[in-house]
Fold these 2 entries.
Entry 1:
Amino acid sequence: MTTLQNYIHGEWRDSVCADQLAVENPATLEVLAQVPMGAATATDVDVAVAASVEAQQEWRDTPVIERVQPLYKLKQLLEEHREDIAKTITQECGKTLGEARGEMQRAIENVEMACGTPALMQSEFSENIARGIDEFMIRQPIGVGCCIAPFNFPGMITFWFLPYAIACGNGFIVKPSEKVPLTMMKVFALLDQIGLPKGLVNMVHGGKESVDALLAHPDIKSVSFVGSSQVARYIYAKASEHGKRVQAQGGAKNPIIILPDADLEMAAKIVGDSVYGCAGQRCLAASNIVTVGDEKGEVRDAIVSCAEAKVTGYGLDEGADMGPVISAESKSRVEGLIDQGVKEGAKPVIDGRGVSVSGYEKGHFIAPTVLEDVPIDGELVKTEIFGPVMSLIHMKTIDEAIDFINRGNYGNMACLFTSSGAHARAFRYRADAGDIGINIGVAAPMAQFPFSGWKESFFGDLHGQGRHAIEFFTQTKVVVERWPKEWSRKF
Ligand code: NAD
């Protein structure tokens, strides 16, 4: 069984940590590799940070137009290897191959965006702010940063940060999720080929111990985290305490409101894709579906038929619409939440508990689940489920529905289905969420926009992707200059 190596100083190295965790395919339960996990991974972090600090000295002197050249090569390599990387994502994370391909497309788009850094890093100049005095702002690299990634997008999430970090002149350390470390092994095999200085980018495996070492390391200047809100809050507090710039994206509980004037057929299909895509393990998965008006019948029935039509299976098999959840622990947590919801009064319309997928009987599968009459103050409605579970809720008015959204703890995404521009406009103005969808079920910002969670879904100021990433990975310096004429010799 392969024990995964770290990538440090431009080479693959064994971790000094002897403790290991098995990486498992959640559909087949095949053990794919062993990943180092334990206190000694902190030593790996020290070595990686030292390598990055050294490499960054020369890299920050390299003109930005030269710094982006390796990214063009990276884009080409990612495209050439997309199929192989997508297959690895499906094997270790469980999502379908189509979903994994889509994930890598989003990763590539961030590399393309970061290729524009020479223009994006340009700054401001004011001539003659007082007589004979000019003032301008420079963006300089912040130093060595790190990314701590979650399990649900093993390929994409690192790309919200890494390409921008290096294009801006920084070093970077990636700590992949210990549940899905194989995808980043493949990505780093490509990063190895693009001509970056040795040590500039590094990958260190592990869990809490390697994260804590990064958070406390004096030479780590920025921390980019994506994961659950509980850990995001901890990361934000700990990294800030150590004086670092932090962006910590957390969990979610995303609502969709369907008004009676919406295209109900389209809405039902899109809602089903949003709730059940990636088996509900997306921070932009819809979970609470609020129908509005006097009647709920027609749209409720259309949604239920879309959910019933979804095929649960192994993501590498033709015809599977939805794969397993990540682990036995996750399956039992999600099923436990459904149990609790039912105890609180929710009625299961389709019950995905206890499903068995032929050929993969031991896999961590839960089939699409729909519950209706879900009490709005119950656990199902408040808690992030991160599984293929839809709570159907009915309300009389759009105002009631928006108030319901705004009472929630999270603020990653909120969506509305309607054919009324006025309702859409009022919704986007009033809904307390960073990503808004109008007749859209997964309002995922493209690479040129920030990924903007609010409330418990985000701790920090500048988000990942686009211009926010450029700002995050640079620090500004303002220069006020006077050059009196009298000091110059006449020629
Ligand atoms: P997680 O918080 O358990 O783990 C994320 C990372 O933090 C991993 O690398 C893990 O090793 C590390 N970690 C875990 N516990 C830690 C601790 N106590 N101290 C220090 N580090 C720790 O999240 P997950 O289960 O891998 O991912 C799912 C979560 O991520 C969901 O809540 C989901 O909503 C969220 N997510 C959010 C976004 C977003 O953009 N807001 C995107 C994707 C996923």
Entry 2:
Amino acid sequence: MAPGVRLIIFGRQGAGKGTQCQRLATHYGVPHVSTGDMLRAAVKAGTEFGLKARDYMDAGKLLPDDIMVGLVAERLAQPDAVTGWLLDGFPRTVGQAEALNEVTSDAPAEKAVNLEVPESVVFERITKRRVCSGTCQRIYRVGDPSAESGVCEHCGGAVVQRGDDTEESVRKRLADYQAQTVPVVEWFAQQGRLVEVDGDQPADDVFAALVHAIDNR
Ligand code: AMP
């Protein structure tokens, strides 16, 4: 296992960030801290915080910076984050990035990595994605037999398009990323703390490029 790292991962929806983060977390032995996953878990658990978070998420809005900074600071203070962490989905605003610098002043993020996939490519990837709504939750693409038949070849579940994978919804999510997150990515670049990795290649090649970029950080 490679030694721990402290990294921020950026990438558009559909850039393959989730898959790559899981592999990187295992490779470097650090927790994958995804704010989207944390919020979805709170919503599922039905906590008071989760109910509040759901209102923002359903409206496609960002939660207030102070709430998000508190949530992340608490998570990074957990024992498993001592060796490092992989932050995904945070920071989403320049205010969050500045606050992260403050709360991690003892051991700040070493680098921010931008998994770059052109908008046209992710648009095609997401709108052609179909998912098994049965037990296996496998991901298919239009053209795959299970996607065409609507029946999962592994578990027999219904293969459907996710509600937020429609063209209209994807256009909005990509526009939001451009307006909200690209300025944060540029903020890291201006500070000389950003590494760009080409995410428009086979998943194994993306992983190798990420490890190379991270090990040479
Ligand atoms: P994600 O899965 O990262 O796209 O996050 C899903 C939703 O959770 C977002 O649309 C926001 O409503 C909320 N969220 C996640 N991360 C943040 C963040 N850093 N700041 C504010 N809201 C966030």
